[in-house]
Design a protein that fits this description.
Keywords: ATP-binding, Biotin, Fatty acid biosynthesis, Fatty acid metabolism, Ligase, Lipid biosynthesis, Lipid metabolism, Magnesium, Metal-binding, Nucleotide-binding. It catalyses: N(6)-biotinyl-L-lysyl-[protein] + hydrogencarbonate + ATP = N(6)-carboxybiotinyl-L-lysyl-[protein] + ADP + phosphate + H(+). This protein has about 450 residues and is of the alpha+beta class. It contains 15 helices and 20 strands. The strands form 5 sheets. It has an 8-stranded antiparallel beta sheet with strand order 13-12-9-10-11-14-19-17, with helices on both faces. Strands 3-2-1-4-5 form a 5-stranded parallel beta sheet. The structure holds adenosine-5'-diphosphate. The site of adenosine-5'-diphosphate has 20 residues, from β8, β12 and β13.
């Protein structure tokens, strides 16, 4: 087992990882920018190293400084959290070259999944169902027309190097297609430095369903069930739940089994998420994230398994603590992402939290790094906390969520709490009847 883990992140996820390390009796080092000197994870860590000024590129993305912090403190492993360097293959390679363990998959696996064309090709080879579309990059107009006619309109053009929901164009007819192809290519080139684009069938009303997987790096793969993350705004997840209200036990076991086998065949190590669009009973792979996800706590709630413990165990060579048949799903869990944003316009609302009171009681978990008197810096994303609620079934979970939202107090700044108080009373949400466009339509109708 590791002696000392360096946590290369900030905010709630840095605290989340720190807690796991403490439970496992592992020493902790955190790195932070000058803007985060007062953060909770910095206060609670065994050691901390200031690695630079507020902008991420000078601190949390500064590989050189982070490796130096490992060497100074004698850390033998790095947990990257999510975002920042968590899916940076070069970072994983550099740590390996310094004999420091990256708590995550190999640089090569990160690289494959980071290139969406390559990821889709790999998924297909591993027997994962993919969205019908081009086999690789498309550059010629003629070829684009042929493929689109074959799969049928509407189609979506996506950037191979894309991410964060950027670089996508929908074409509803052949007339749209030519323009969409040109704009997608030039936008991808400008945004990602790579103008490779591919075409796939555009699904009209899918749900976003993702499968949590783990590999032990030695040919074993398991799945921890699915999460439904269909409630999104601008491709950003807002509310996540497990299990999905749309799946039955048979579908769950089937897609979970397909993903677990694929992970085993790939020889993958650590946590991963295989994301699908789901429509009319069919799953369509869209991408794989090679890291811990923001929404991992809903999976922990229904399985009772600490996924960060598992990540650390696997990375240290100790293997997974559970076999597939030992992973049981109990009850229902929902996560609300609480952002420091105006609940209507979603403009960021940094500033000082004058009062912070979190709900409690059975089935309630709050993952947050903030406290009363904490000043939210304006430099980073606006997530200030996650409320995760567990109940024996979805109805109990929703009742408990409504109560917990009423108890939650964040004063001094604006937050998205009022949005969740509205959602929890909505009939479609109560019935679990929503697709990936539901939330944006709801927000547009409210205006
Ligand atoms: P990114 O890496 O940028 O997040 P994804 O491939 O995961 O890109 O897609 C992001 C979102 O775009 C999906 O959650 C979905 O809302 C939409 N999307 C992607 N592909 C399709 C498709 N073939 N049909 C319909 N919507 C899609």
């Amino acid at each position: 087992m590791f002696q000392k883990i360096l946590i290369a992140n900030r905010g709630e996820i840095a605290l989340r990882v720190l807690r796991a390390c403490k439970e496992l009796g592992i020493q902790t080092v955190v790195v932070h920018s000058t803007a985060d000197a007062d953060a909770m994870h910095v206060r609670l860590a065994d050691e901390s190293v200031c690695i630079g000024p507020p902008p991420s590129r000078d601190s949390y993305l500064n590989i050189h400084q982070i490796v130096a912090a490992c060497e100074i403190t004698g850390a033998d492993a790095v947990h990257p959290g999510y975002g920042f360097l968590s899916e940076n293959a070069k970072f994983a390679d550099i740590l390996a070259a310094h004999n420091i363990t990256f708590i995550g998959p190999s640089g090569d696996h990160i690289r494959i999944m980071g290139d969406k064309i390559e990821a889709k090709r790999t998924a297909k080879r591993l027997g994962i169902p993919v969205v019908p579309g081009s086999d690789g990059a498309v550059t010629e107009e003629k070829e684009a027309r042929r493929i689109a006619a074959e799969i049928g309109y509407p189609v979506i053009i996506k950037a191979s190097a894309g991410g964060g929901g950027r670089g996508m164009k929908v074409a509803r007819s052949e007339a749209d297609l030519v323009v969409a192809l040109q704009t997608a290519r030039s936008e991808a080139g400008a945004a990602f430095g790579d103008d490779a684009v591919y075409i796939e069938k555009y699904l009209e009303k899918p749900r976003h369903i993702e499968v949590q997987v783990f590999g032990d790096g030695a040919g074993r793969g398991v799945h921890f069930g699915e999460r439904d993350c269909s409630l999104q705004r601008r491709h950003q997840k807002v509310w996540e739940e497990a299990p999905s209200p749309a799946l039955n036990a048979e579908e769950r076991a089937h897609i979970g089994g397909v993903c677990a086998r694929a992970i085993a065949d790939l020889g993958y190590s650590g946590a991963g998420t295989i994301e699908f669009l789901y429509e009319n009973g069919e799953f369509y792979f869209i991408e794989m994230n090679t890291r811990l996800q923001v929404e991992h706590p809903v999976t922990e709630a229904i399985t009772g398994i600490d996924l960060v413990h598992e990540q650390i165990r696997v990375a240290s060579g100790g293997g997974l603590s559970v076999r597939q048949e030992e992973i049981r799903f109990q009850g229902h869990a929902i996560e609300c992402r609480i952002n420091a944003e105006d609940p209507r316009s979603f403009t960021p609302s940094p500033g000082t939290i004058t009062h912070f009171h979190t709900p409690g009681g059975l089935g309630i978990r709050v993952d947050s790094g903030v406290y009363s008197g904490y000043k939210i810096p304006p430099y980073y994303d606006s997530l200030i906390g996650k409320l995760i609620v567990h109940g024996r079934n979805r109805v109990e979970c929703m009742m408990r969520l409504r109560r917990a939202l009423d108890e939650f107090v964040v004063d001094g700044i604006k937050t998205t709490l009022p949005l969740f108080r509205d959602l929890v009373g909505n009939a479609d949400i109560a019935n679990g009847e929503y697709d990936i466009h539901w939330l944006e339509k709801y927000l547009a109708d409210e205006d």
